[in-house]
Amino acid sequence: MYKVHCMNNIAKAGTDRLGANYELTDALEDADAIMVRSASLHETQFPKGLLAIARAGAGVNNIPLDRCADEGIVVFNTPGANANAVKELVFAGLLLASRDIVGGIEWVRANADDPDLAKHAEKAKKQFAGHELAGKRLGVIGLGAIGAAVANTATRFGMQAVGYDPYLSVSAAWNLDRRIEHADDLSRLVADCDYITIHVPAMDSTKNMVNAELISQMKPGAVVLNFARNTIVDERAMAAALAEGHIARYVTDFPNPVSADMKNAIVLPHLGASTTEAEENCAVMAAEELRDFIENGNITHSVNFGAVDLGPIASGERLAIIHQNVQGMIGKFSQYLADNGINIENMANKSRGSMAYTLIDIAGEVPADVIDRLAQAGGVRRIRVIRSK
Ligand SMILES: NC(=O)c1ccc[n+]([C@@H]2O[C@H](COP(=O)([O-])OP(=O)(O)OC[C@H]3O[C@@H](n4cnc5c(N)ncnc54)[C@H](O)[C@@H]3O)[C@@H](O)[C@H]2O)c1
Ligand SMILES: O=C(O)[C@H](O)COP(=O)(O)O
């Protein structure tokens, strides 16, 4: 029985998908795998037996990816599984920033006891008038699963979407509406957009990407939406730009003492992926990734190891080896197996950074002492023997 420890609430559809050979455990020290959403794992000491962490969601800035790789722990995320939920909330943010919907609702509530409410509303409504999205320019920073969905939907709203993503993947490019303009310079993109929406991951390279200088280059009266992470925006600079009226609105999904106190900010409590559908999609994808890794050794959608897939194990045994990405490792494995009269039926290897992963299919059984010797080979972090059922 495999044990899975959930660090956040994970949708039941996902934990059910783990199946009969898995049970949930409250004891982290017993866990073979962790399922997590946004809980921070940076201070967590992982047990020696932990094989994998599945982030039911996109952002992995809450997980120490390099430490996990070094400890032989494979980290997965669920790309695209919550993109539609975020896209829909971005459009709610665009509308909330453009029409004073919140002010109007509050006015009605404050005047609920007025017997002439309907008549007075007709007079009061001019203070809540706003702008339409159609015809406006929307700059999209990051055209991955969410950014592409936002840009495509914007064109259907009659907006002109302009995208900036120097690392755009080919599959993401195929998903883009051909009416979306391509910008190769961020300063130029922000200078002529009425709305700017951020959809890049939080990494060292994107920290304070939207800084005082970039904010100063934005069109006066621009609206900025941040459904990515607060570290991407220099929020003190944003607060100053809002206070002086250079930026009309800042819509953010990341509350903190700085953003909660900003003038003209609309601050949500990290609701982007909080829909039943997204929570289930993420949890199901995370569970499937964990199962394929634990039961077959295959790695799909890892954020700290490359993709390796030999399909389901059909017969014999499969060795799953996490090792350092140094010269001669594969040669060492194959030579050692050959020296022990063991033939390799199939093999796959992928490296990423300083670590690598090798799957080796063997027709029969590998004796325990051979496995022990392989495990002791310099550079091997972890070796698992997966047996066909
Ligand atoms: N608010 C929420 O609840 C919520 C939900 C999901 C994701 N997110 C955040 O949104 C981010 C994006 O999610 P996604 O699913 O679209 O991820 P994704 O990986 O599909 O897309 C990210 C895109 O950003 C691009 N990129 C990376 N660095 C860039 C840079 N310096 N400049 C421009 N583009 C750059 C990448 O090439 C990629 O296309 C996540 O990393 C997460 O932090 C928030
Ligand atoms: O990166 C993500 O997927 C989102 O920020 C969602 O986070 P959550 O799973 O904690 O809602």
From TrEMBL:
Swiss-Prot/TrEMBL catalytic activity: (2R)-3-phosphoglycerate + NAD(+) = 3-phosphooxypyruvate + NADH + H(+); (R)-2-hydroxyglutarate + NAD(+) = 2-oxoglutarate + NADH + H(+)
Domain ACT intervals: 318-388
Superkingdom assignment: Bacteria
Key word Kinase present: no
The enzyme's E.C. designation: 1.1.1.399, 1.1.1.95
Pathway: Amino-acid biosynthesis; L-serine biosynthesis; L-serine from 3-phospho-D-glycerate: step 1/3
InterPro entries assigned: ACT-like_dom_sf, ACT_dom, D-isomer_2_OHA_DH_cat_dom, D-isomer_DH_NAD-bd, NAD(P)-bd_dom_sf
CDD domains the record matches: ACT_3PGDH, PGDH_like_3
Top-level EC class: oxidoreductase
UniProt key word Cytoplasm: no
Pfam families with a match to the protein in the record: 2-Hacid_dh, 2-Hacid_dh_C
Gene3D superfamilies noted in UniProt: 3.30.70.260, NAD(P)-binding Rossmann-like Domain
Family indicated by similarity: Belongs to the D-isomer specific 2-hydroxyacid dehydrogenase family.
Protein name: D-3-phosphoglycerate dehydrogenase
UniProt source species: Tractidigestivibacter montrealensis
